[in-house]
Amino acid sequence: MYPDEFESYFSLLWLLVLFVGILMIFLCYLYLAMRTARRKDSESMESFSLVLEGQEAERQRIAADLHDTVLPNIKDTAVAARVREICGHLMPPDFTRLSLAASLADLCGKFSARCGIECAFSIEEKFDLRDVSAENQLHLYRMVQEALTNIEKHSKAQKAYLTARRTLAESILICVSDDGAGLQNIQGLRSIPGTGLGIRSMQQRAAIIGAKLDFISENTNGLMIRIEIFPEVKS
User: Fold this and answer.
1) What is Dmax (Cα atoms) for the chain?
2) Contacts of 159 (CB under 8 A, 6+ apart)
3) Out of 99, 122, 152, 195, which could bridge 115 as a Cys pair, Cβ 3.0 to 4.6 Å?
């Protein structure tokens, strides 16, 4: 090998070593960045979970106070009925005794009685959720409750619909829809008056339980909220 060929070979070797070194540094940086991002996501989910746990505890405390200290002193039957309704809205179902299917059916009935919007529900007869924890069932229940509340307050709908079933892929699918005005700006959910906090709460709950949450809307053709969770994703 001639000296100039050796020098050229040596230069190419150093360039290759330099390239591999830069690539390794980049991969290390990417790995650290991804690990940091995952840690932040985990911390964020833990924070969301703690906030929601606090909210549930506060709901139960308020419901207990209303039921035990306020309700006994109310003489007006209409007011007393309204307070009982508020207590029922705040207190979660006991999913160690009640099924989510029965709780959702009851939620639809109370929604229709309260606001006068008919709620047609179709819940699969074999809607088995034994592979979903009581905590995650509560998240699903609260998401449906929030969806119905948004229909009551903002949709101007005549009818609401709730379906709950298992898919062929064995995922759990819950859809809440209405025949109201729909969302005018589906890409800007937070900018829609009155829907920001409720929708963000639903998004947080979906993230915590690993559910896929979709908002499907066409102008003046109502809104569908689609919640799907796979059994293997449960906590």
Assistant:
1) 108
2) 117, 118, 119, 120, 178, 179
3) 152
Structure tokens at 168: 């062929």
The partner residues of 215 in beta bridges, in order of sequence, read 225
Instruction: Sketch out the chain's domains with CATH numbers.
Output: 95-233 (3.30.565.10)
- What Å distances lie between residue 95 and 4, 9, 63, 127, CA to CA? 80, 72, 18, 14
DSSP letter (8 states) at residue 69: I
CA angle 194, 143, 151 (to 5 degrees): 45
Nearest Cα to Cα of residue 140 among 108, 118, 173:
173
Instruction: Report the alpha-carbon distance of residue 205 to residue 183 in Å, rounded.
Output: 21
Per-residue model confidence as pLDDT tens digits over 174-225: 999 998 877 654 444 444 444 567 788 899 889 889 899 998 876 667 889 9
Query: At what angle are helices 196-209 and 134-150 packed, to 10 degrees?
Result: 160
Best CA proximity match to 103, nearest among 118, 90, 93: 93
Query: What does the angle CA 95 – CA 96 – CA 100 come to, to the nearest 5 degrees?
Result: 30
